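Workshop exercise sheet. Pairs work together: one partner reads the sequence aloud, the other fills in the structure field after running the prediction. Swap roles for the next sheet.
Pair: D.N. / O.F.
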Amino acid sequence: MAKLKLGPIADDKPVKITLELPASLHRDLVVYAAILGREGGQAAADPLRLIVPMLERFVASDRGFARARREADRAAGD
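Structure field:
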């Protein structure tokens, strides 16, 4: 068996989720998209396209989650 630098490729197929947002949150996303577009010198982005990067940033910056995940990974490795 060849020793490759790449390990197994994670299944990164997108998962489609349907959810309902409160109207106030949708309005905030519309305003956020408009401000983001204006600051970037572009047209307002589709507010729905903001959800994934916002969730990614939230999860990446949640220290409590990171700590709990490390502990769970350690426990699973035992």
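Discussion prompt: The mean pLDDT is 86. What would you look at next?
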